[in-house]
Design a protein that fits this description.
This protein is α/β, with parallel strands linked by helices. The chain has helices spanning 3-47, 65-81, 96-103, 117-125, 161-170, 185-197, 209-217, 230-234, 282-296, 299-307, 317-338, and strands at residues 54-58, 85-89, 111-113, 138-147, 149-152, 175-179, 201-205, 223-226, 239-243, 256-257, 269-276, 311-312.
Length: 344
């Protein structure tokens, strides 16, 4: 090949190299721009959140503690978010059905759930079948703090926890206690009461506290440890005997702590919170948490929560995450110490 041919070949090689380089550069620029536009779109969407109604799943029946606490803050949160909060009750399996539904939802902040201490108790007592509330959802904040209240049917004519113990021992097998499902917090409290007092009792699970309270009021179930008892006590449907708080509970100061009478040293506070699907952007969680925090500082909201027999939470993700962790430790200790077993 002559010099002219070599020069021509070199020129062609250079042209092809430049063409390839330009094509690669164009491709890189295209993907870079696409990535930037995608990132900007996500940021814009998050900045505009929320731009449509938010669906909030309450995994228990309407009228229970979780339902009432969420409804207490819903209107105030709507005013701060600029979008309606649509509350939907999805019952069953001690809340597992509703929790699973939200865990698998799109992680965009438009589907939330209201878990409670029933979820942590269930995770410990039925680990094979329960929902992993610690890792399966993203905390937004704690809505309210509750005490369990020992309530009985008015038909019993009993007014103190000591009277209930005497009645139970004198009438073995005649007492039944309700809960919002196997392995729930009120189920564990009932089992502890039975173990500590030596009373033979039958456990009857329901899909929420409200249906159980109706049965207690009718005398078909005799007692229950309720997280949202005050409205039912005030309405004379059930009779309150004691609470599981260490000291007299501010919304119901006339009821004595059960840890100072028939269950020495026992105390426990339940809770209701707000969580999102795993993977929900931090910016969206912060927006929701801020709306919850501000709502819980509203005096009307605080008064409404206290009228239900509860105390307002702080509304932060860290507070709720720590509550879940401490619950799991406490319930594991209870199950181990009492040697309790539960059906899967």
């Amino acid at each position: 090949m002559g010099i002219a041919g070599i020069i021509a070949l070199e020129s062609q090689t250079r042209c092809k190299f430049m063409e390839v380089t330009v094509m690669r550069l164009r491709t890189s620029i295209f993907f870079f721009l696409a990535l930037m536009l995608s990132s900007l779109a996500v940021k814009a969407q998050q900045a505009a959140f929320p731009n449509k109604p938010i669906r909030v799943i309450v995994p228990t029946a309407s009228g229970g503690a979780s339902d009432l606490c969420m409804r207490a803050v819903a209107q105030a949160m709507q005013a701060r978010l600029g979008q309606p909060l649509v509350i939907v009750n999805v019952t069953g399996a001690t809340g597992n059905i509703g929790l699973n539904q939200v865990a698998s939802a799109e992680p965009d902040g438009y589907t939330l759930v209201v878990p409670s201490s029933a979820g942590t108790a269930n995770q410990v007592s039925r680990p094979k079948t329960s929902f992993d509330i610690e890792n399966g959802l993203k905390p937004i904040g704690k809505i309210c703090i509750a005490t369990f209240t020992l309530v009985v049917s008015p038909n019993l004519g009993i007014n103190t926890a000591e009277e209930l113990v005497r009645y139970g021992k004198a009438n073995p097998g005649k007492l039944s206690f309700g809960s919002q499902g196997y392995g729930s917090g009120n189920h564990l409290a009932g089992e502890m009461f039975a173990a500590a007092t030596g009373i033979d009792m039958l456990h009857i699970p329901f899909r929420g506290e409200a249906p159980a309270a109706i049965e207690i009021g009718a005398g078909r179930v005799q007692m229950m440890f309720m997280a949202g008892a005050k409205p039912f006590i005030d309405g004379k449907l059930v009779v309150g005997l004691a609470t599981t708080n260490k000291e007299p509970w501010p919304p119901m100061p006339n009821l004595q702590p059960i840890g100072k009478s028939v269950l020495p040293g026992f105390s426990y506070n339940g809770w209701n919170g707000l969580m999102a699907p795993p993977g929900t952007p931090d910016a969206v969680v912060r927006r929701l948490s801020r709306a919850l925090v501000e709502s819980l500082q509203d005096e009307k909201v605080r008064s409404l929560i206290q009228s239900m027999g509860n105390m307002p939470g702080a509304g932060t993700p860290d507070e709720l995450a720590e509550q879940v962790r401490s619950d799991l430790v406490m319930f594991k200790n209870i199950v181990k110490e009492r040697n309790l077993t539960f059906p899967d």
